[in-house]
């Protein structure tokens, strides 16, 4: 009954018109076929598939293979291949070979090659930057992996800055990213699997994991989820992240997005699964818990007391960022008796000439702070510092002098704003900044009682979040066996276990010396 | 990606139990105890714990015959379909009224001490909304949140009690036996209700990891709570002495008295935060258990959907009494004097029936085979 009603309801609300795709069954059918042995037919097929000569970077070159005395052509995307490689290792042997040879692999010395017959598959390889060689009378096609895409080199990590420890970051070339992980984990059990996830642009996702650690069930869930995606194009890992999340509308992130290869490999070593994608300068670690999002790699690089010190700072910052503004509102509006008389006088004195209620004051300043922050991020870098100065001077000093904002509110906002920067994970950062506003409203509504009610409600919600079946606060609650790297960390010698919620094949990281 | 709802581990279970029962030290229970037996009030929790130990032990022993079955199924199995149903219904009704009046008490406290100008209904609605949301999320999550909170809650209670020792006088606890042994024992046996929640907690057995965890958790929480309530009551007696008789909610008066040094005279809000968090968790668990009872009683499988409507009903019952006095002096004693002894009686009856029916021998034979 309920289902029926909701179905009717949805039908009534759904105003999306129906779109009919223009038919291209011809091409789809063509792609399912194999290539023929006939040279001209193949040439025609691929020229039409790639719209040659309208498509300017598709190059087709016809020639005669001297040794075999047969015609052949190669087809490639000039923007995606290393032209020098094609010249040296493919074309030259084919044209100028003096030694007698019977088949292509003997002539072309290029190391990475494969043969394919299906037209669709060949098309996929060509669009991926391979060079395809067709020979007259041959019913298979030779594919050479000549991909050479220009991109950034490996650079310093910009968004997750640390003082002690490795500095390099992922870049847009997935080959580089894999190499960065491989160079940290020199083990044949490190698997890099690939899976095509979108239909039209054929974006690949690379799953990186340790075969002898990862939980098979988890791996299967993730693979199923990836193959269940039905999209035309998925150009970036951050969009894949939203597709994978269980609750994409939730305020809180449930997957860890990091640009640091050292972090990724540390998680692989624990039995997590890392996703990489071409064109995305980052990796996606799943499953992720609150702790993964809350920690920073530096916690472990620093000596234990220092690492714990910055953890405490971060925990404090989390609370300061979320609660300062709301507690200020709650105390000044509802629980005035709490403030020591002298301080109360001071606050009242500064607020004397301000015409707004304190919640309006705080909201104005919070919004102003968010504006400055966003503007500072978007302006071209030469003007960047100016914005900072303008923001701080004009909005802070002048607002106080104009009696719009009381100085104490500036302190409160500055403190909470500054603290929010300490949470380095960008999604968590957003979550905290947005929850801050919710807390401000609840404090304005019911003082401390409202804040507490929202806090407990929020805690219930956060605790119920799951990332691929892993509860958000695992292994703290529900408890599972781990090396207890939660609020505080221990010395590395004591952290001997992998997290139990992952159910890795091998729980023990370090055996005890006997 | 749907997972089976996880079961409660011992940490979460103990946390729920401690928050559910331990919160009694911070509401009107110490004052009610004091009004009956004056300065020996602190002994009542200990004595009642001793008295209630026997039925609880027997109940847990009986329950352990039926692995993974909750209280209501066991009652129905042992007492038959019809008598069992009536007994279960009585338990449910008592527990429902207890929730209503307890939440009302909390609302009264909040209104009397912290939000004097806010209408009762708004405070009450917010309390119930939050609790209903928590209960709707499921027991596992109530457990997780209580585990996250329990440590801070207890520490803040200790700090509050610790600071209040500065202003207290240990001589107030003498004469040691208060009105005399006979009175003490009489009232202790009537105040079994302090531990009545443990009887209700047996509803959760199917949601706890194993029977052993349940047994162990119950005893840990039981001993701990009996000490905590007793210690808190003793402290209040030492702090207020005779005037405790005229105080309804000693914990809240106490945190108004204390201060952190000269500079911060009023710290009650800090303790209020923790106290109200405890209250939210307590009633979330209560609501969940009541919905579970209702579901078992009328064979409703997805009882989680009942929580919002049950909450509304409790809210409506709780809002009926006109003044806080009606609740504390008339309605709550009604439940309190009835629930504990009745639950103890039911536990013993269950054990007796099991004994007569030969269930224990049965289980033994099964084990030996």
Description:
The complex is a heterodimer of chains A (514) and B (369). With 514 residues, chain A is of the alpha+beta class. Chain A has three domains: 26-144, no CATH class; 174-288, no CATH class; 302-470, no CATH class. Chain A is 46% helix and 11% strand. Chain A has helices spanning 2-13, 25-32, 39-49, 83-96, 104-107, 119-127, 174-182, 216-227, 237-244, 261-270, 290-294, 298-301, 304-333, 341-351, 358-378, 384-401, 407-420, 426-464, and strands at residues 58-65, 70-77, 113-116, 131-135, 141-144, 190-196, 204-210, 256-258, 273-277, 283-286, 466-467, 470-471. In chain A, the strands form three sheets. Chain A has a five-stranded antiparallel sheet with strand order 1-2-4-5-3, sandwiched between helices. Chain A has a five-stranded antiparallel sheet with strand order 6-7-9-10-8, sandwiched between helices. A two-stranded antiparallel sheet of chain A has the order 11-12. In chain A, α15 crosses α18. Chain A starts with a helix and ends in a 43-residue tail after the last strand. Chain B has one domain (10-363): Amino acid/polyamine transporter I (Up-down Bundle), CATH 1.20.1740. Helix content of chain B is 73%, strand content 0%. The model of chain B has no long low-confidence stretch (mean pLDDT 86). Chains A and B meet through α18 of A and α6, α7 and α12 of B.
